[in-house]
Amino acid sequence: MLLLDAGNSRCKWARVEAGQWLARGASDNARIEGLAPEFARLRPPSRILVSNVAGAAMEIRLRALLAGWPAEPEFIIARTAQCGVRNGYAQAQQLGSDRWAALIGAWHQVHGACLVVTCGTATTVDALSDDGAFIGGLILPGAALMQRSLHDNAALLQPEDGTLREFPLNTADAIRSGAIRATQGAIMRQYNLLQQRSPAARCLLSGGAAESVMAQLTVSCERRDDLVLQGLQVMGENEA
């Protein structure tokens, strides 16, 4: 199988055979066509599973990129239930395919209550119950997006790299620390709420900004990268 996770900024991929990841890579969305030489070196996959949250134009570009293989790409959407996870969204298909795949990936790693946090362009904070029910979650701007929003909309706040500090004493550090603390606050609040239901709940973090968000986070959390790709793998292996 070939698995692709097309997010808001980057596309990650993995080539899987017999449960093993044989190759993997990533590309910025703006340069997605540059994956063609890498894909040309791969053995043609029997299935191609894609999570795409980058819009219709990205789907067209991905279909063109993958057109040389016999297998038709399967663009997944959230369902009411799949691979042990039940979807509590009011309208199941409105849940993002990336969030759905990450929930399935997390469930098959933990098989218990957990908070599934993905830190990318957006930060998502989703809760799974003890019996595999998605009970709801948050979407908020990613830390970098929060910073850019302030820089773009406040004339006196110039774009500078800041550092996370307990009590910032310059503007760059204040903006950086504010974005990280806002993200951490959302995670801690949702984790506390989930623990009230399931005291043994775990917290899983993934995404490009996970490391910065984990710094000084008072919640005990586990770094679990590529949950979307892992969820796609579970889907492909359980629905041949």
Salient structural properties:
240 residues, alpha/beta, Nucleotidyltransferase, domain 5, seven-stranded mixed β-sheet, five-stranded mixed β-sheet, globular
Describe the protein.
Helix 3 packs across helix 7 and helix 4 packs across helix 5. This protein has two domains: 74 residues, ATPase, nucleotide binding domain (Nucleotidyltransferase, domain 5), CATH 3.30.420; 115 residues, Nucleotidyltransferase, domain 5. It is an alpha/beta fold. The N and C termini lie close together (10 Å). The model has no long low-confidence stretch (mean pLDDT 92). The strands form two sheets. Strands 6-7-10-9-8-11-12 form a seven-stranded mixed β-sheet, with helices on both faces.
Chain-wise SSE layout:
Layout: E1 2-6, E2 10-17, E3 20-28, H1 36-40, E4 48-52, H2 56-65, E5 73-75, E6 81-82, E7 85-87, H3 97-110, E8 114-119, E9 122-128, E10 133-141, H4 143-153, H5 171-197, E11 202-206, H6 210-214, E12 222-223, H7 227-238
Helix pairs in contact: 3-7, 4-5
